[in-house]
Amino acid sequence: EEVEETYIMIKPDGVQRGLVGEIISRFERKGFKLTGLKLFQCPKELAEEHYKDLKTKPFFPKLIEYITSGPVVCMAWEGVGVVASARKLIGATNPLQAEPGTIRGDLAVQTGRNVVHGSDSPENGKREIDLWFKEGELCQWVHVQAPWLRE
Ligand code: DAT
Ligand code: MG
């Protein structure tokens, strides 16, 4: 049981569709701690670096176009098991296969417009937070709920 960090990002469709509050709420209510938050228009180079593992995929150019098509909401969340838990809250990559109750299962219909990103490992959580946030943009603070979340 280790404290982890994950990078969560509301993609341009989530912002345009007015889902920012709804999506942030789900992580807040679960009991994770927000340590970074900003609205950001992402340059192409950053999107390409973020998704570098998918560079050879046929959908890569459209993915980069999508991610850079409008502002995104960048977030860093901290907590025990937050990486895997956030992936569960988000749901499967294809929203039509995502379970009801998940963000994608409830709020999206297509892989190419799946409203939110979540890191897939603690290592990538660190890498992505480093990539998207500058020094001084993250806050360390005492989560007063902590003793009511874990015994
Ligand atoms: P996830 O976002 O669930 O971690 P991923 O890392 O495999 O999924 O892919 C990153 C994003 O790329 C995904 O959210 C949407 C897009 N993508 C993945 N597979 C795709 C496909 N077959 N067609 C179109 N877009 C795809
Ligand atoms: Mg991924």
Automatic annotation (TrEMBL):
GO terms for biological process: CTP biosynthetic process; GTP biosynthetic process; UTP biosynthetic process. This is Nucleoside diphosphate kinase. The keyword Transmembrane does not apply. The chain holds residues 78 to 228 of 228 of the full protein. It comes from Nelumbo nucifera. Keywords: ATP-binding, Kinase, Nucleotide-binding, Transferase. Its EC number is 2.7.4.6. The keyword Nucleotidyltransferase does not apply. It comes from the Eukaryota. The active site is at H117. It is an enzyme of class 2 (transferase). ATP binds at K11, F59, R87, T93, R104, N114. It catalyses: a ribonucleoside 5'-diphosphate + ATP = a ribonucleoside 5'-triphosphate + ADP; a 2'-deoxyribonucleoside 5'-diphosphate + ATP = a 2'-deoxyribonucleoside 5'-triphosphate + ADP.
